[in-house]
């Protein structure tokens, strides 16, 4: 049994299509078929049901899949450790980040690249749910996002700071000079909210559940840049964490009173997969992140 064959087996298990898997592996379909057949002959049982319409995993294939995936991860971790011993600090670092962490990310990224120019850093921005899903698929070394409402046994979440939800308006809005606002008062204003499924929207929905409020939600979107643009050009109000507004010119974050303090709190975290080898570059980036002035400033808010 070869590591290459296990990689071919895992890819075919994902696509359940010989042609598609072969293209993604950059090999010919006949090569893929031959290697899978060799693996099956060595194991003494078929791993896939094949007919003219579909390809499906057999019971043996279903049993082998998680074991094969773990074997590939262990092999990759071995290579990473040896490579780091040889090159000290090099290779690639893959980071997922939500919009709320942009200012923290920018400060630490600049300092990290100056100190470790041989590390290539790949940064992807998306929703928290998408990033956590991709972290579980080993696409990232770590993710910067708020802590999800539901815990995940596969994910370790290290808290950097905590913030509360706020009502956000432009600096010329009638609410801009207010020291606070209540949930009841928010019913008077037109709202432009993040889409359901985003961390801020989920927290807001949980807070108002069963309280009989009727809000005038005129716009919903998951693109925060566009949301801020809309707010600057209108009298809409949105609901976001106070950290999201930091560094945004012309925006005001107004505390919302009358909510349970802990229920309203959002925790900014570094999310990592449990029981997975952590690159030295990831360890160093997280260390620098904890010392960044942006994180310290937000922790003190």
Description:
With 301 residues, the chain is α/β, with parallel strands linked by helices. The chain is built from eleven helices and twelve strands. The strands form three sheets. Strands 3, 4, 5, 6, 7, 10, 11 and 12 form an eight-stranded mixed sheet that branches. It has a two-stranded antiparallel ribbon with strand order 1-2. Strands 8-9 form a two-stranded parallel ribbon. The longest helix is centred in the first third of the chain and has 29 residues, at 59-87. The termini are far apart.
Largest sheet: 8 strands, mixed
Structural class: alpha/beta
Oligomer: single chain
Mean pLDDT across all amino acids = 86
Q: How many strand units? A: 12
Instruction: Give the N-to-C terminal Cα separation.
Output: 56 Å
Order of helices and strands: HHHEEHEHEHEEEEHEHEHEEHH
Per DSSP, the total helix count is 11
Low-confidence region ranges? 296-301
**Proportion of β residues?**
15-25%
Cα shape = elongated
Helix content: 40-55%
Write down the Rg.
24 Å
